[in-house]
Amino acid sequence: MASHIVLVTLACVALSSSAAADLRVRCNPDATASALMGDALRHDMSRHGHARFAARELASTDATISAPTRNDGPEYLMNLSIGTPPVAFPAIIDTGSNVIMAQCAPCGGFDTAPLYNPSSSSTFSDRPCDSSLRVGFCDAADGGAANDTTPGCPCTRNQTYAEGWAFFTMAMETFTFGSTSGDDQEVPVAGMAFGCVNDSSGGWGSASGMVGLGRGNLSLVKQLGASRFSYCLTAFHDGNSTSTLRMGPSAAIDDTSAQSTPFVPNPNLGTLSTHYYLNLTGISVGDKSLSIPADAFSLSADGSSGGLIIDSGWTTTTLVDVAYQQVRAEIVSLVTLPPIDEPQAGLELCFNASQESTSTMTDMTFHFDGEDMVLPAESYMYLSSGSEWCLRMNNASAEDGSVLGNYQQQNIHFLFDLDNEMLSFAPADCSTI
Ligand SMILES: *[C@@H]1O[C@H](CO)[C@@H](O)[C@H](O)[C@H]1NC(C)=O
Ligand SMILES: *[C@@H]1O[C@H](CO)[C@@H](O)[C@H](O)[C@H]1NC(C)=O
Ligand SMILES: *[C@@H]1O[C@H](CO)[C@@H](O)[C@H](O)[C@H]1NC(C)=O
Ligand SMILES: *[C@@H]1O[C@H](CO)[C@@H](O)[C@H](O)[C@H]1NC(C)=O
Ligand SMILES: *[C@@H]1O[C@H](CO)[C@@H](O)[C@H](O)[C@H]1NC(C)=O
Ligand SMILES: *[C@@H]1O[C@H](CO)[C@@H](O)[C@H](O)[C@H]1NC(C)=O
Ligand SMILES: *[C@@H]1O[C@H](CO)[C@@H](O)[C@H](O)[C@H]1NC(C)=O
Ligand SMILES: *[C@@H]1O[C@H](CO)[C@@H](O)[C@H](O)[C@H]1NC(C)=O
Ligand SMILES: *[C@@H]1O[C@H](CO)[C@@H](O)[C@H](O)[C@H]1NC(C)=O
């Protein structure tokens, strides 16, 4: 199968010599704001997982790989390298999407991130003409997104988000990871498909791109053939500590108290969905079990709306309004500080903490299909710089469904076991993992 891939790649290079030149044209001069940062990262189009990528043979490796991760507020980044010679590639970890995207020189560079230049790498190749990839990825209408792809070569895509977009050409590169077998041992993985971004509505702050860890065939997980991965997001306010993301056999939670809950298959797409859905059955604040309808977090019968996904690339947990209002009312009843009418923090419920110090809050518990995830106050309350003390959750429509964001995931060690379709988790001091 490797020789097949080489032949396809050579054909593509011959057909698309003008595409390489296109990569060197001027970028969007307005692209200065980090419009893609934070919750804007969330896709509007693939939220409900209609992305279908055509079958193709993917690169795989037996090596377990690892990458240091750190909080870049509000996103968590993993550290890997791209190209030959390798260039640092700090990238947002996103369990809610499927593609690896890198800002490519001469475009990009609007931020502080290292900029990768495909023309300086000996292992870059366009990957536009693999017919299965093009049909599956570039031509497919994707969850109702605009049909804005370019037919033929090169294979390009305008990936849209809630508040932004990135335009890229599908290409191939070598990515280099750390290894768990020895700290200095690096593991290069050749022939990984990625999106070479040459235009976007904004940058990624200090990230050079994004790494999708979703279920789709182009995600890092699937391209590596990894059947499991684990991560542990360090405390949200701690920008100095690091943790380790592991893919492959060494991904594990070394804690006998770890709990497990099954992923919920999307009724329509099954495990072909992008997303990792969980079965949230209720929420408690302290000892009080909130009266949330039993079906509040259920996926609709056709799999197109509702549900709750776990998303490392989305910061603030959103709950469908019927659940959110219960949580909100309980928090209002517990906090004695005055609420703020129009909070600046971009959150729905905030209190004025400029005079008094914040209250001591009880734990909140998310009840998953038999197992409990305990969120201490620092994982659901948030003190913004303007002394607004806020519930770090927002509400969403029943159709949009709910998202377990990275603020709520801090200091919990997660294992995504894809063979067994289980999520395991245990509270942890992630700075030690
Ligand atoms: C990005 O690449 C595409 C395809 O090669 C090209 O049509 C487009 O003009 C490029 N955009 C920018 C801003 O360079
Ligand atoms: C991924 O590839 C496999 C086989 O290579 C195929 O059966 C499956 O449908 C693909 N998944 C998606 C989401 O396209
Ligand atoms: C990420 O890689 C860069 C460049 O190799 C290095 O300077 C930085 O310290 C690394 N960060 C972490 C968290 O390992
Ligand atoms: C997308 O565009 C292609 C080429 O113009 C067309 O053949 C196809 O029908 C369109 N698909 C949708 C869903 O509009
Ligand atoms: C990508 O799509 C967005 C939203 O539809 C649009 O505003 C933007 O101009 C498109 N970008 C390119 C390069 O086509
Ligand atoms: C990181 O550590 C430095 C030096 O100890 C400290 O000044 C800084 O406040 C820390 N930053 C964060 C975000 O924790
Ligand atoms: C917070 O309280 C202080 C003191 O009472 C007041 O001056 C300030 O305007 C309040 N801020 C908001 C956003 O309500
Ligand atoms: C969710 O968990 C509840 C309680 O264990 C169970 O009754 C229900 O069937 C589960 N739903 C799904 C979709 O797995
Ligand atoms: C979210 O809650 C606010 C007020 O609590 C309400 O005005 C708004 O309509 C709600 N949004 C959704 C999507 O339910």
Give a written overview of the molecule.
- The protein is mostly beta strands.
- It folds into two domains: 2-247, Cathepsin D, subunit A, domain 1, CATH 2.40.70.10; 259-432, Acid Proteases (Cathepsin D, subunit A, domain 1).
- It is 12% helix and 33% strand.
- It is built from six helices and 26 strands.
- It has helices at 2-15, 17-22, 131-139, 220-224, 321-334, 406-409, and strands at residues 65-71, 76-82, 87-94, 100-103, 125-126, 156-161, 164-179, 186-200, 209-212, 228-232, 242-247, 259-264, 277-278, 280-285, 288-289, 308-310, 317-320, 350-352, 364-368, 371-375, 381-383, 388-391, 393-396, 402-404, 412-417, 422-427.
- The protein has a 17-stranded mixed β-sheet that branches. Strands 15-14-19-20 form a four-stranded antiparallel β-sheet, covered by helices on one side.
- The longest helix has 14 residues, at 2-15.
- The chain starts with a helix and ends in a 6-residue tail after the last strand.
- The model is unreliable at 1-26, 28-62 and 139-151 (pLDDT under 50).
- It binds 2-acetamido-2-deoxy-beta-D-glucopyranose (NAG) (9 copies).
- Residues 1-20 form the signal peptide.
- Belongs to the peptidase A1 family.
- Keywords: Aspartyl protease, Glycoprotein, Hydrolase, Protease, Signal.
- It comes from Digitaria exilis.
- One of its GO terms (molecular function) is aspartic-type endopeptidase activity.
